[in-house]
C-alpha cells in the first residue's frame, strides 16, 4: 500500500485516524500529487462520489490527522477534515458530479498520440518529476496528457496499470484518482504554459482497472473564469465504458514559474465556456 492509516485514541464523540502520503508520491517537488492526496482522503468518506478540497499543499511523509464531522467550520456533518497540528490541510464530503454529458472518448491509439504531443516534452518544469505525469520518473505512471488529434480542446493520455500502483490484481483506489487528476488539467492552460494547482476534486470510481489493463483518460474544460478553470475527466476501458469520472477546479498561480515563461497569454481571460 502507498499510504498508512492508523487509529488514534480520542473521545467517543469524535473519530480520528492518521494518514501519511508516502514520499515518492509527489506532484510538485516536495508536495504530494493532488490526485493521490485527494484519493487517499476520499477513502475516509462513506460515499461513492466524494469531493475533496485541498486547502494547502499536502506534505509528503508527514502524519496527518483525519477527523469526522463538525470538527471544523469548513466541515459540515458527514464530512471530514484533515489537519497537521492546528493547520487545516484538506476537507472532504460526499459529492455530486456535473451532470452534463461527456464528449465522445478518443480511442487508445489517439490517446498515445496525445501523450506524444504533450506540450512540455523536454521542458524541465515544476511537475517534471510528478509520479503520475512526470517524464523523468522511471517509476511513474506515465499519464502525461496532450491534445487529442483533431480535437485540441480535449486532453487525453493512456494508462497501463502497473504493479507499483496495484494490489491483488487491481489498481489502488488513490491511483485511480491520481490517473484522473493530471489529465484533468485545463487544455488551454497546458497549451499556453499556464501553471495551475488543483483546488478541488470530485470523483467516483465505478471499478478499479486490472493490473496490465490499458485505459484512456481524457478531459474537457467546462468553464474558465479569470484564473479559475472547471474541468471534467473520464476514464474509459477498451469497450468505451466509463471506469471512473471526475470534476476538478484548477487555479492558475499568480506567480508563474520561470521555466514556463514564453507562454502565449496570461491567465486573466474573460469568462468562457468551452465547446465539446
Would you give the CATH topology of the largest domain? Thiol Ester Dehydrase, Chain A
Major beta-sheet overview: 13 strands, antiparallel
Shape, per Cα inertia axes: globular
Number of helices: 4
Structural account:
With 276 residues, this protein is mainly β. It has four helices and 15 strands. It has two domains: 3-94, Hotdog Thioesterase (Thiol Ester Dehydrase, Chain A), CATH 3.10.129.10; 108-267, Thiol Ester Dehydrase, Chain A. The protein has helices spanning 34-42, 108-116, 173-181, 187-191, and strands spanning 3-7, 16-21, 49-54, 64-68, 80-84, 87-94, 146-148, 151-160, 166-167, 170-171, 196-205, 214-226, 228-236, 242-252, 269-272. Strands 1, 2, 3, 4, 5, 6, 7, 8, 11, 12, 13, 14 and 15 form a 13-stranded antiparallel sheet that branches. Strands 9-10 form a two-stranded antiparallel ribbon. β7 and β8 (151-160) form a beta hairpin.
Give short descriptive properties of this protein.
276 residues; 4 helices; two-stranded antiparallel ribbon; mainly beta; Thiol Ester Dehydrase, Chain A; 13-stranded antiparallel beta sheet
Summed up, what is this model?
This protein is mainly β and 276 residues long. The chain has helices at residues 34-42, 108-116, 173-181, 187-191; strands at 3-7, 16-21, 49-54, 64-68, 80-84, 87-94, 146-148, 151-160, 166-167, 170-171, 196-205, 214-226, 228-236, 242-252, 269-272.
How is the topology of this model organized?
Layout: E1 3-7, E2 16-21, H1 34-42, E3 49-54, E4 64-68, E5 80-84, E6 87-94, H2 108-116, E7 146-148, E8 151-160, E9 166-167, E10 170-171, H3 173-181, H4 187-191, E11 196-205, E12 214-226, E13 228-236, E14 242-252, E15 269-272
Antiparallel strand pairs: 1-2, 2-4, 3-6, 3-11, 4-5, 5-6, 7-8, 8-12, 9-10, 11-14, 12-13, 12-15, 13-14
Helix pairs in contact: 1-3
